[in-house]
Design goal:
The chain is an alpha/beta fold. The chain has a single domain, classed as Rossmann fold (3-Layer(aba) Sandwich). Helix content is about 40%, strand content about 15%. It contains 7 helices and 7 strands. It has a 7-stranded parallel beta sheet with strand order 3-2-1-4-5-6-7, with helices on both faces. Strand 2, helix 2 and strand 3 form a beta-alpha-beta unit. Helix 3 packs parallel to helix 4. It is globular and about 50 Å long. The model has no long low-confidence stretch (mean pLDDT about 100). The structure holds NADPH dihydro-nicotinamide-adenine-dinucleotide phosphate. NADPH dihydro-nicotinamide-adenine-dinucleotide phosphate binds next to helix 1 and helix 4.
Length: about 250
């Protein structure tokens, strides 16, 4: 990852903060984006000169453009995008308020769309076709492959992310930008609140084949593969990383 400039959305907690630490350890510069500026500042301070914190809301295109502008001004063209920001809404489809449905679609689908395309626009304009080092990784979810009570809106956005990745990969295949999707399994972060400490949550873990949650660092090697030069010939793939939960 040395020499790479990565923009990671949803970096104020969970996967995004973990990915930022990983990338900096591996020699990249990181631009960390999310809405909670206080969390980002603390992480940027921890990571030092290699990190730039930018307040951004992935549902607002202007804030995405501003984040890429700030990234370019500090580190140069972003060559590695991790479109990770996401929210979960749970509720039966007959009950879920329209505002919740719209929020999850705007964040998980349109937010990923806007984040990836702004990065690709700039890579294409900067002539990445010549060296083929552009990398875009979209964070989906195994729920794209499953059905579950209360999951319809969230899971459908993640199914959309999987296909968006393939579509983007096709569009940019001759432009030096590789696009791949990681579909993580259930991993403890803030997104699930205290669900996995509840009786139902514990029963869900007990029902996994390996009777455990997937650890967050299970994502490290797959992400480094798809974000680095190692994946020069990998584009349009959807990689499930879930410790076999979905099987
Ligand atoms: P967290 O809740 O810890 O992180 C979500 C991140 O997204 C936060 O940093 C949040 O920051 C950011 N975010 C939410 N809305 C916006 C927005 N409108 N604009 C910018 N940033 C936003 O959860 P995870 O780390 O677990 O989730 C990361 C991704 O991984 C999500 O897409 C999630 O769906 C996916 N995922 C998670 C799994 C899990 O088991 N944990 C499994 C499969 C997929 P802020 O609120 O500061 O804006």
């Amino acid at each position: 990852m040395a020499g790479r400039v990565a923009l990671i959305t949803g970096a104020s907690s969970g996967f995004g903060a973990h990915f930022a630490r990983l990338f900096v350890r591996e020699g990249a510069k990181v631009v960390i984006g999310a809405r909670r500026a206080d969390r980002l500042s603390a992480l940027a301070e921890e990571l030092g000169e290699a990190a730039l914190a930018v307040s951004m809301d992935v549902t607002d295109e202007a804030s995405i453009v501003a984040a890429y502008d700030a990234a370019e001004a500090r580190f140069g063209t972003v060559d590695t995008v991790v479109a990770n920001a996401g929210i979960a809404v749970a509720g039966r489809s007959i009950d879920l308020p329209l505002a919740d449905v719209a929020n999850v679609v705007n964040t998980n689908f349109i937010g990923v769309y806007l984040t990836a395309r702004e990065g690709a626009r700039r890579m294409i304009a900067a002539g990445f076709k010549a060296h083929g080092r552009g990398r875009v990784v979209l964070i989906g979810s195994i729920t794209a492959e499953m059905t579950g009570q209360g999951d319809a809106a969230y899971a459908a956005t993640k199914a959309g992310v999987a296909h968006l990745g393939r579509q983007f990969a096709r569009e940019w295949v001759r432009q030096g930008v590789n696009v791949n999707v990681i579909q993580p399994g259930y991993i403890r972060t803030e997104i699930d609140g205290d669900w996995f400490d509840s009786e139902h949550g514990k029963a869900q873990i007990a029902a996994f084949h390996r009777k455990r949650m997937c650890p967050i660092d299970a994502l490290d090697a797959p992400l480094l593969l798809l974000a680095s030069d190692a994946s020069v010939h990998i584009t349009g793939s959807v990689l499930t990383v879930d410790d076999g939960q979905v099987l």
